[in-house]
């Protein structure tokens, strides 16, 4: 039975799903990397596709921007469609001096300013959302095999894109945060709730400290390394 946000029938979604925020990126990934991709949902123009990669069924589901939207799709995929492996593939803004444009980063954990987990744990616990170690290890291996330097460390999942407190970004860098994105903490938390596996892999599209950024077309073309790492990690782990 379809959910409020996904119109797929049971069995149309693989148990392994890549989660780009941008629905058009979901379409691009499916058409570029999957064999025989079939669109299973277009609700709210948030496209989802299932095909095969190296002979294994894989789905690609857009989630929208931000933790509330990503949490809706992640929850429905895991709760209604029995998805057990998700890998976020998105863009991020670097806040660490050693990270450069086009670098690919994987989040071993996701610090956040969101109140979602405070609400979930009744303001009693500062829950620490972390990636699945097996997926992270598989991604690191896939990157090494492809000759890609995968940077592994903490991500910061922010609820705000525009900030009135830029000094926080320098403080995050001081505490080892590699980059800022907007979804990983919610996805990691829900994976823990549903006893599933999750990992966030991001391409650095801009550098917040240095003030540099990729043009939009180059940004799209630079995401291939990230997607291939995610797909190979998904099918090898």
UniProtKB/TrEMBL annotation:
Entry GO MF terms: purine-nucleoside phosphorylase activity
EC number: 2.4.2.3
Domain Nucleoside phosphorylase: 17-228
Residues making up the signal peptide according to the UniProt record: none
InterPro entries referenced in this protein's UniProt entry, alphabetically: DeoD-type (IPR004402), Nucleoside_phosphorylase_CS (IPR018016), Nucleoside_phosphorylase_d (IPR000845), Nucleoside_phosphorylase_sf (IPR035994)
Domain of life: Bacteria
Pfam families attached to this UniProt entry: PNP_UDP_1 (PF01048)
Matching NCBIfam families: deoD, PRK05819.1
Family note: Belongs to the PNP/UDP phosphorylase family.
Protein's name in the database: Uridine phosphorylase
Organism: Salininema proteolyticum
Name of the encoding gene: deoD
